[in-house]
Structure formats: C-alpha cells, structure tokens
Design brief:
It is a single chain. This protein is an all-alpha fold. Helices cover 63% and strands 0% of the residues. The protein has three helices and no strands. The N and C termini lie close together (8 Å).
C-alpha cells in the first residue's frame, strides 16, 4: 500500500513548549514515529484480516473498508 503520511502539527501543552525548542522537536518526532508505527500496524492487521476473504474479492473489500 502506497499511502503517504504528512507530518501533522501537534498542539502541545504549554508545559512542554516551555521546555524549549529542542523538547518540542523531540516530542514532534516521537509523535510522528508513533503515528507511522500505528499506520503500519493497521495495514498489517488489515492484511491479516483480508486473508479470510477469497482472493478475487480482496480488492473490492479493500475499497469498501477504505484501505
């Protein structure tokens, strides 16, 4: 699946932004990495689930579930 992910701006609490730009960059990086892992896990779960669907129907089912 060739889904492209754009880095989203995360609204951080004042307590984190008060720690300075290095901390903000670190938090943004960690959030981005977590989003990428979550997307990969979701793709893997969908692929595992689709194994119960007959092969000729998998493309149609992927379109229906929005994958």
């Amino acid at each position: 699946m060739g889904t492209r992910f754009q880095r989203r701006t995360v609204e951080l609490p004042d307590g984190i932004t008060a720690l300075g730009p290095d901390a903000v960059d670190t938090v943004h990086t960690l959030v981005h990495q977590a989003e990428r892992r979550q997307a990969a896990e979701l793709r893997d779960a969908l692929d595992r689930t689709l194994k119960i669907v007959p092969r000729p129907l998998r493309g149609a089912v992927k379109k229906v579930v929005g994958a």
